[in-house]
Design a protein that fits this description.
single chain, about 250 residues, mainly alpha, 13 helices, globular, transmembrane helix, NqrDE/RnfAE_oxidrdctase, transmembrane, translocase
Length: about 250
């Protein structure tokens, strides 16, 4: 149980800081650049992303586990009525993952938008146009695909991610997106008061700052290994390093 909690904690830390979706994988760049002119709007966008990416992760994990993956129980039960039990066990629907995830993300955004507009009008007014724009944030699809890679094709079924790990990755990725976009908004507000040379004004200085931020976040490399050593006894760390894959949220210790 203690090892599981450490894994959960490290997955969140890695997704938020070490393998930040925006500054390490460069996904979700469009809202990162387009909605980072003011800290207030950037923070609102970040909170909306955390909310939607969590719902999308919940839906994608459930659909992958019970419908898409080879031998998924629901698909196997339906296919058993039309095939032999052996053929039904081999049905693989992961080829439909992109379509299903995009549909799930768009549907969840629309559902959340309708729910918030009906029951929380002040919050809906605060989020404004940023809530429907989350549909086009590819960082959410990226999180769904990472979760799928941790469920499908895992050599040892016991190593497949459960819902807790999937949700932790999603929330950590959303928090990392919020941290990155708020930092960028703060820098851009300061840049508005500076005498930036004309050739570097606009998108040029924004991309330069993004590159510097990405290099700054590289300083978190190896933090997960240090935290693991600090929180676990040395024999347990050595045994886990030999028998278990890295619990880093994206497949590799950084």
């Amino acid at each position: 149980m203690f090892s599981y909690l450490i894994d959960i904690f490290l997955i969140g830390v890695v997704a938020a800081l070490i393998n930040n979706f925006v500054l390490y994988y460069f996904v979700g760049i469009c809202p990162f650049v387009g909605v980072s002119r003011k800290i207030s709007t950037a923070f609102g966008m970040g909170c909306a992303v955390i909310f939607v990416i969590s719902i999308a992760a919940l839906i994608s994990w459930t659909i992958t586990t019970f419908v898409l993956m080879p031998g998924a129980p629901l698909t196997r039960w339906v296919a058993a009525h039309f095939m032999t039990p052996e053929a039904a066990a081999g049905v693989d629907l992961t080829i439909l993952s992109y379509i299903v995830y995009i549909f799930a993300i768009a549907s969840s955004v629309q559902f959340v938008e309708m729910y918030v507009r009906k029951f929380f009008p002040p919050l809906y007014k605060a989020l404004g146009v940023y809530l429907p724009l989350i549909t086009t944030n590819c960082a959410i699809l990226f999180a769904c695909l990472i979760i799928m890679s941790k469920i499908v094709g895992v050599d040892n079924p016991a190593d497949a991610w459960d819902l807790g790990r999937g949700l932790t990755l999603a929330v950590g990725g959303g928090i990392g997106f919020t941290i990155a976009i708020v930092i960028m908004a703060g820098i851009r507000e300061e840049l508005d008061l500076c005498d930036v040379p004309k050739p570097f004004q606009g998108a040029a200085i924004t991309l330069i700052v993004a590159g510097i931020l990405a290099m700054g976040f590289m300083g978190f490399t190896g933090v997960d290994s240090g935290l693991r050593k600090a929180m676990m006894p040395a024999p347990a760390v050595a045994a886990q390093a030999q028998t278990a894959p890295a619990a880093d949220g994206t497949g590799a210790n950084q």
